[in-house]
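Appendix B, record 7
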Amino acid sequence: MIKHKFLLEMRKGNNLSQAYVAKEIGVSRQSYMEIEKGAKELTLSQAEKIAGVFHLSLESLISGKKISDMEISFQKEIKKEPIQEIRIDVPQKNLKKFKEVLLYVLEKVGSKSNVGMTVLYKLLYFIDFDYYEKFEEQLIGATYIKNHYGPTPVEFKKIVEIMETKGELETVKSKYFQHDQTKYLPRRESDISVLNAREIKHIDEVLSRLSDMSAKELSDYSHLDIPWLGTENGKVIKYEAVFYRAPETSVRIYNEDKKRIKEYLLSF
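Structure tokens (predicted):
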């Protein structure tokens, strides 16, 4: 249950009107007033949207604590340790699979005018996270962090550098409407022997569903995803969070969908 007093504090703290917040989450002002008074509960979809309006993670919204409050509490209980950078050393097996999936994706949709670096980031994210939700196994198993524009694969730039050095890939700077765009041209065919039939079918389905979206459309879509919503900026997005996805991004049919969501909300 989300604390209605916290909603009131956050709205006033951000100098937002009830009408503005209501419009952002898709309800009438009267309905939002009832939510803020505690007379009506937010749905999970509405909670995700309002967390975005207040620039909070979903966990922060549910717990009723701002990030700064959570950090203070955390520091009192645990000794401060040096901040470590996210490692981008890629095991050889994963490197091979990442390279071949990237080349395969580029062969399939890389020539589309909308498919630049930003779109590729999101396609790889949904290839990985959708597969994990459906089959509870990793496909590429890349590491993704949360940033303002959506999930970013940490290993991507390092792997592209390796592939360019070997002549497997070429980076091209271009324009997409008024925006600068980075595109990638494959210089060899992908070796799909590293993928099984189920993985290939899954990649094709993701590309069919998402590859025509613009960078903004895909970024906005990724911002609806619970794994992204529930992660602090700059932190690693956890694969396990896919099992709490809302219907907007979920790709798996759950027999106990409502029970899973309820358990997730009650865990805070």
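Remarks on this record: The chain has two domains: 4-77, 92-255. The radius of gyration is 20 Å.
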